[in-house]
Task: structure prediction
Amino acid sequence: MAQNLTTDLIGEAPTKSNEEIKSILDEAFRQKAVAEGVIVAYLGESDRRATFRDEGATSTEAWATERFGISTATARSLARVGEKSSDLPHLVRALCQGDITFDKMRALADVATPRTDRRLCDQAKVCSVRQLLDVARAVAQDARARSQSTSEHERRYLRFNDEFRTLSVQLPPDSYAETRTCLEARAKKISSDGETPWDQRLCDGFLELIRSSFPGASSRATTGSPHFVVAHVPLDALVDGSGHPCDLAGDLEQDGLIDTQTVQRIACDATIAVAVDDDVGHTMYEGRAQRFPTDAQRREVKRRDRRCRFPGCPNDTFTNVHHIVPWKPDGRTDLDNLALACEFHHHLVHSKGWSMTGNANEDLTIVGPTGRVMTSRPDPRWTRTRSL
Result:
């Protein structure tokens, strides 16, 4: 019967018009797709049941090659698509109804998921096989990017080395780019004498980012850090007016010895508490109460100075409240003894060879190692307000 049908088709084909040939081919390919849909659905079920073992085969692919006389490549394609058929009901149904071809199904099978099944099925009905291959390639690239991103995220770490006071950080690509951009932007805003190395300015930017990240903190001039770092300091290191540096002036917890200049600078700083010790190293008290400016004082200092009080410095973002006369037990923490200083100049006025004297509400005199005398006055807007 099949031979007669084939003979009839061969004999009839030359008699058909072009439109009839097209119509016959349309139906034949639709039927082919329907048949392949059935094959895919049942081959997938056969694979899940391991039917191939009944006939001594080692896989569905090998079994289909031997039993149905198809090539290894064809068997591999059918088996691969059949393996995913239970997860892709929309694509399989469209194939069984002849709405898409097996080649379209195969193009999408490796990247389709139960979540994307319906959307990809809709695309398969209107796109060519070449277009679907491009779609599959894009989906695969997105999946790899997400997987890589997840993998990078899982490899993130930050480690401390207390011996060398260093940090080691591994970041995902997007976090690294975000961090670098943020730190570089901050470093560019930090005042410099033109000789401060870029890596040191990046370090200063990093510290300012940490110090300004607390809730409600716009800058260090208006709020203090909630983190608690203690420097154990002999009383003489705070009250001694000689100014001679000493390597044994203090002990920074979890770090080591610090000199007199560092002691006096951190006593002025808002981020480190000073524990004043007696002559045998016993802590007499620990805290900031007597030397730490109030929030109201900090706001007024910022309103009065607007920016760093060092002459010519435009920095109004990364600033500290500096004690002009270094704080000591029962010492002054009054408005006229407090001035706004940027990170760079705050360190500068605590270094050897520099001095700052005067009344911050009026005139401050700053003298550097060269002997040049500079004068700093409050912002004119604050002065004008006070004179009204």
About this structure: Residues 218-228, 285-290 have pLDDT under 50 and may be disordered.
